[in-house]
Specification:
The protein is an all-alpha fold and 400 residues long. The chain has one domain. Helices cover 72% and strands 3% of the residues. The chain is built from 14 helices and four strands. The strands form two sheets. The protein has a two-stranded antiparallel ribbon with strand order 1-2. The chain has a two-stranded antiparallel sheet with strand order 3-4. Helix 6 runs antiparallel to helix 7, helix 11 packs parallel to helix 13 and helix 12 runs antiparallel to helix 13. The longest helix is centred in the last third of the chain and has 35 residues.
Length: 400
């Protein structure tokens, strides 16, 4: 065990935050498992606890393995992974899975292990690494909008187009994070205005076509519209039902909560262990539990910015921000949905909600951040060693 800790590199506070969130997640997930067991017709709630443990164990194994890889290799890996991700997204959307006529093709089944995998989450991480690579590549060049269309924006829009029919919230999140990253990378604002306008125009066109030809391709446009209308005007829909139960759970929690495992709304919230787990946490642990989570994510954001600021290359800086910002932003969206500041989006709470793909890709992103941090520690350690060797007084003091 000591040997394992000695091999852990990178920002120790990020390791600690990830570990604290993961450990804390067992309590609400196990509590909500009673509802999952009831709905699934299985009385064994401990099986869900074990499943969540295995997801986290594999996630932290990914994090450990990735953080040992020098981050410069991710530059080339992103080029290799973009075509693979596009193929996986095409395979996913061609499955034609529908729920009540709406496109629900988000997962593919992994052969041999019989596990589902949400391809859009992998696409998000790979795309952010790819964009960071491109922006660092052109840092000393005069940026031409025409020259950036094929190498930068074509892969971005291909990924977004393939995700959009089944998952608007993830598409919007990825697009927003890409815009933030290229802005931080120095991409001209006048070009960004064109891209944002093109994105909005493409979305409107997609919605118009989907509404005009509803049988042409299964999509979730009606679901998006109903959620937005329900958020603004209220209504009697499943999303409204979930929000109402979430608000009841939050109101019941008050300051200190009703206690671990004593939530009642977990029996009524369909997504009590994933999308609305924040409401269950506040019900059981009160405002204190909710503030604890918010502090953890804000602390993680602070450490991400610190690691990016200390990176010795532009690619390292953009890489950390590109894969780190979506984690915190997704957490804020999940919390905002639970308190009805946002329409229902289906975004999970990173490292807290149950679900393998979300946990694995969050750990992958954190592993990349730790890889950048580990490289900085290596350079700092080398500089300190060289300074000690070059300073006769230091050598004399050590000898004495």
């Amino acid at each position: 065990m000591q040997q394992l800790f000695n091999n852990i590199k990178g920002d120790r506070l990020i390791w600690a935050i990830a570990a604290l969130l993961a450990i804390f997640s067992f309590l609400p997930v196990y509590s909500a498992a009673s509802n999952l067991a009831y709905v699934g017709g299985n009385s064994n709630t401990f099986a869900f606890f074990v499943k969540h443990f295995m997801h986290l164990f594999l996630g932290f194994t990914i994090m450990y393995g990735v953080h040992k890889i020098p981050y410069r290799y991710f530059r080339g890996l992103s080029m290799v992974m973009i075509p693979i991700v596009l193929v996986l997204l095409v395979v996913t959307i061609m499955q034609g899975t529908t729920i009540e006529g709406a496109n629900a093709s988000r997962w593919i089944r992994i052969p041999f292990v019989n596990m589902s995998f949400q391809t859009s989450t992998l696409a998000s991480v790979v795309l952010m690494v790819y964009v960071a690579r491109y922006m660092s590549k052109i840092k000393d060049q005069k940026v031409s909008f025409k020259e950036s269309i094929l190498p930068l924006w074509l892969p971005v829009f291909l990924v977004l187009i393939l995700i959009l029919p089944s998952n608007f919230s993830t598409t919007a999140l990825i697009f927003l994070m890409v815009i933030v990253l290229v802005f931080l990378g120095g991409y001209p604002i006048r070009y960004l205005a064109v891209i944002i306008g093109s994105g909005i125009l493409a979305l409107v066109l997609f919605i118009l076509v989907a509404k005009a030809f509803p049988d042409a391709m299964p999509n979730r446009v009606d679901t998006w519209m109903s959620r937005i209308e329900n958020f603004s005007d209220g209504g009697d829909t499943e999303a409204d039902y979930q929000i109402e139960k979430a608000k009841i759970a939050i109101a019941s929690g008050e300051l200190t909560g009703v206690g671990p495992g004593k939530s009642t709304q977990k029996n009524f919230l369909p997504q009590s262990s994933s999308d609305f787990i924040f409401a269950i946490i506040i019900e059981e642990y009160g405002l204190i539990g909710g503030l604890f989570l918010m502090v953890m994510y804000m602390w993680l954001l602070f450490r991400i910015v610190i690691v990016a600021q200390k990176s010795d290359t532009l690619f390292g800086k953009l890489l950390v921000l590109g894969v780190g910002f979506p984690i915190v932003f997704q957490a804020m969206i999940n919390m905002a949905v639970a308190v009805e500041l946002f329409p229902v989006t289906g975004q999970t709470l990173p490292l807290i909600s149950s679900g393998g793909t979300s946990i694995w890709m969050t750990c992958l992103a954190i592993g990349i951040i730790l890889s950048v941090s580990a490289k900085r520690e290596e350079i700092k350690g080398r500089e300190e060693t060289e300074n000690t060797e070059d300073n006769p007084l230091e050598i004399l003091s050590e000898t004495i």
